[in-house]
Amino acid sequence: MVCDFMMKKYALLFLLLISFGMKANFRASVVTVDITPKSAKMLLGYGARQSIGVRDRIFHRIVLMDDGFTQFLLVSSELCVMSPSTYDQVAAEVDQKLGINPINFWWTLTHTHSAPELGTPGLPAVFMGDRYQHPIDFEYLKEVKQKLIDGIVEARRMLRPVNIGFGMGESKANINRRERRPNGKIALGFYPEGPVDDQIGLIRLDNLDGSPMAIIANFPIHGTFFGQDNLYISGDVPGLISRYVQEKLKAPVLFINGAAGNLAPNTMPLGDKVVSKDTSMRFFKEALGDKIVDIYKSIGQLTQSMRISSGATQIESLRKKSLTWIPELKAYEKKNRAGEDVVILPARFLKFNQSLAIWSLPGELFCEISNEIRKISPFENTFFYGYTNGWLGYIPTAKEYVLGGYEVETVSPFTSSVEADVQKAVGDYFKNDLAHAPFPRDSVNRPSRVLVEKDGSLRLTAEKGKAIGPKIQYMPEWRAFGWFTANDEVVWDVQVPESGNYEVLLEWSVDDAEAGKYFLLSSSKGNLKKRVRPSGSWENYAAEIVGKLPLKKGNEQIRFKSNDYFKEGAILDLREIRLRKVAD
Predict the structure, then answer these.
(1) What CATH number does residue 542 fall under?
(2) Cβ-count burial 43-80 (b if 16+ within 10 Å, e if not)
(3) Quick check: is 225 in a domain?
(4) Total domains, the chain
(5) Long-range contact set of residues 414-419: C-beta below 8 Å, sequence gap at least 24
(6) Which residues on adjacent β-strands are paired with residue 349?
(7) Containing domain of residue 546, as a range?
(8) Which pTM value belongs to this model?
(9) pLDDT by residue (tens digit) across 463-500?
């Protein structure tokens, strides 16, 4: 006789098969984490200076999206810039602890100039070495990183079905900032005749009952409304807009900056009405915040039938001959065939069905480049996310190199060829790769030998495991083994590259009522016994390091089964076990 929990699971599976043709619901979650420091910090942006208080609190805002085949993680943090090496360190830890591939983890910063420094300065120390004579605050980096990882774990636990839609609009809240002085020099100021990117790009995520879950708003604007005299921690205009729209729509807002390299907050419409910072900030609520609310309300077509696909390419562009490099960023430089030094600029891509494409760079792109790529994009909607996964300086147009100025002369590692290099590489990827890239297929269970990954890990996925037992079944819509009873097990044939102890990351789901049973993971050299922790539900997958398993070099058989005997229920649904060698 099939127990109640089995009947419920079969009923759920039947509904999924009927409704989605073997495809799971599009799911998402949102988590907001306060990262406001408790003590004075050195602020990034402008010259070195220390905070004396908090004007408004700053946050990580995390959205996790899951189309049943790919999990994509987007983080917006109210910070200024970070070294790509900092992103790489955190991304490796997220991959190791949670099994999220870095290609599916985008960490964007809003670029507020009133937030604490984050870890090593990276390239800014090359440009402005005198500014970084104070000690690096590794404690704050540790705190920010741990809060981010904890937030991602929480986001996984909270995943639930949603509807998704996209929209676009315009705002006059920004202005070209490369002011032309009478002496012919370029200065930071206002240049009303200069090019801008006034597009607002919106992603709307709603709960199935129609209530808003999250809003992802993309708009290019420097976080410099509060100038260099400000000593109070603040999210600046991006933070203001996030809070304002959240109050209006009752859902968290991820503000994602765009091609803001030459765009400042536009206070020109205020004229002599700029009485105080508080008064003038009202303009941005109207000029940008209310526009986002209007776009949100105008999005009429939302869907659960959404697939996502990510990609990446590397742009190589000549480095200034006068510029030295630092070992910390060795992964981002090389010599070309002519023996010239080039900077490696990693670009990331994401598409939603065939209707929206997003691309990103770790730098400050001039808006003209983003505008041109948008024109040649084969997608109906195209967004650009700047300040993503690090910072490798300003990326100006060739025309602006002739004129000079701060962005060109001081804080860009590139030569005037960078505009053409970016446009060609990104344009080619859009047309030849992203537009035609297939979405991940429905997975099937084909037991096969597990070989070592490029990062040195061993991925024991459900697709490659052999199921043995009377009840166990492979569930393609979840890419996992389910109906896992006391008499069932999974066996993997594994080619182990090196003998030693391997850290075990388990990805599983289980209803809270069924959690608590013990599993046994075994090899020829030993075993690991651990209690199955709750994941929240059968539909919510969690990932956690559960211990260590000794392995011998060569061919191994690794087995996973219940360590307890029980008549009814199940031990868990098993998606993947990842093994990574650790020091003995």
Answers:
(1) 2.60.120.260
(2) bbbbeebebeeebbebbbbbbbbbbbbbbbbbbbbbbb
(3) yes
(4) 2
(5) 414/317, 414/318, 414/319, 414/320, 414/343, 415/317, 415/318, 415/319, 415/320, 417/317, 417/318, 418/317, 418/318, 419/366, 419/369, 419/395
(6) 311, 359
(7) 458-581
(8) 0.80
(9) 999 999 988 989 876 889 998 999 999 999 999 999 99
